[in-house]
Amino acid sequence: MLKDTIYTIPISDVFEPRCGCPICLMRDMLENRNVEYVMGAAMMEPDIRVQTNKYGFCTEHFSMIVVQKNRLSLALMLETHLDELNKKHFPLNVKKGEATPANTCYVCNEISASMDKMLETILTLYFADSSFKKLVNEQEFFCYQHYELLVKKASVKLNKKQSAIFIKDITEITRKYLLSLRDDVHSFSKMFDYRNANIAEKSDDVKFSLERAISFLTGR
Ligand SMILES: [Zn+2]
Ligand SMILES: [Zn+2]
Which spans in the chain are helix H? Predict the structure, then answer.
């Protein structure tokens, strides 16, 4: 797989399913591709190695990397990463406001750079292509993390008028879902009331409402 194709995902692929948060789906796809790439083809790319040596990985991405098949790749990468830490960051020199290798991640960096570009494309398409606008408004929901990301991006990228329209539209979708989720969590609590003990089986939406609420809040 070429490097360029790892970092771009057709926007329609994440919006077409109309199921769950499309930006979570985009993040998951970018994440999987990056992790596979780091453990595969990237091993042969000295410039990628320079970056993985420099930034390392966060706990979440290390745990995805460690279950990949290629143990030799991982060993080689860890070896040079440890060497680099030893050479350049040992003892650690903490400068105010500067990220240290203890809290940077190559995969996180790559995902956020790709997402940034893709979010810009989404905002541009929203006002250029009415069928895409319709598709965005047919989404089940945006998780709160990505709702925040979209609102922030819209307020810097779009003009005042467009930004107001876009934010109003996605707020409507997100709030509608939040309220239905809130009702499901409420029904879940009601199951603990003895007066409701013989109410027939709850729907899956209610049964999994706590997990769904956490996923809505965290984007995971
Ligand atoms: Zn999301
Ligand atoms: Zn990470």
Answer: 3-6, 11-15, 22-39, 46-55, 59-65, 71-88, 106-128, 130-137, 144-157, 160-190, 204-207, 209-218
- Tell how far the Cα of 187 is from the centroid of ligand 1, in angstroms: 24
Q: Are residues 20 and 109 in the same domain?
A: yes
Residues 21 and 93 in one domain: yes
Q: How far is the CA of 55 from the centre of ligand 2 (A)?
A: 10
CB 31 within 8 A of CB 152: no
Q: Is 51 within the bounds of a domain?
A: yes
- Give the integer Cα–Cα distance in Å for 18 and 139: 5
> In total, how many domains does the chain have?
2
Each residue's pLDDT tens digit in the chain (220 positions)?
445 556 678 898 999 999 999 999 999 999 999 999 988 887 778 899 899 999 999 999 999 999 988 888 899 999 999 999 999 988 888 887 778 888 899 999 999 999 999 999 999 999 999 999 999 999 999 999 999 999 999 999 999 999 999 999 999 999 999 999 999 999 999 888 877 766 656 788 999 999 999 999 999 9
**Gap from CA of 91 to ligand 2 centroid (Å):** 23
Query: What's the gap in Å between 97 CA and the centre of ligand 2?
Result: 19
**Burial annotation 93-115 (CB, 10 A radius, 16+ → b, else e):** eeeeeeeebeeebbbbebbeebb
Count of beta carbons in the 10 Å neighbourhood of residue 74: 17
155 phi/psi in degrees, rounded to 5: -70, -25
